[in-house]
């Protein structure tokens, strides 16, 4: 048994030793703490929110498109109604011209009767029984004049009523069209503002996640999911870089809708594995497709036919490229929620566990 003084010295040495930490272990502990903090920080991000914003933007775009089509149809209806009204007014004008022509014989009869008064050569001799051919002719002229005058009066009355009806109809059509067009224009304007607001929120969310897009408040052109259809109008492998949305993985890009869905998928992957998805390839232009095709025969589509050239495919690494690895299995179970999938052909012919494609129709995330 050591003396009391020695026992106290031993106790002091043990206490000091317990306070000393091996440098390697200290650094490992710091790295683990930092890694835990980063994972916790990432866990605060909601990948579903990005997908929700994308779907809201797409829905707003669809509503805007439908409202715009309705407005265009209304304007076409207005043009058709105006054309019909113009035709009716032309018909009315022609009728009035015919009426003016029918009045001319009546005017000549009146002039004739003025030259040969009925009282002198017509009615009085007829009543006294002293009538001749001139008298009968005069009486016939009077009857014809009265008849034609009556017909003219009736025609004038009909044309006047038709003119009033058409004027009222024209006013009603124009007022209704103007009101409907104003309402539709206001609706289109409201939907456009709402769509811009959603796209702006989406852009801001992408910027926070490391996507290098427009940071000055305007909707990013290349990462606007509403531009995806426009990008689809370009030939395979010839999509301009301005129409492609960059990924968090530097040097890689995709079509806007595919890129936004991939960012959401990558954030969910980061939650699980503590790191984003590793990407070796995404969009390939035509020259890159030709290079890969000749360097890796049998492992690349014919240039101009690859989904990489449409901005709808990625080649992955970091474990996903190994069939049945934890990363690959996780992707199989979760990627379709974000519109991404491993195509059937890539399981066997050729076998490419690293190749994944995007299809918005299979996006099941609510």
UniProtKB/TrEMBL annotation:
Keyword Protease belongs to the record: yes
Pfam families, per the entry: VanY (PF02557)
Kindly state which keywords UniProt assigns to this record, in alphabetical order.
Answer: Carboxypeptidase, Coiled coil, Hydrolase, Protease
Q: Which InterPro entries match?
A: DD-CPase-like, VanY-like_core_dom, Zn_M74/Hedgehog-like
Gene Ontology MF terms in the entry: carboxypeptidase activity
Signal peptide interval: none
The protein, known as: D-alanyl-D-alanine carboxypeptidase family protein
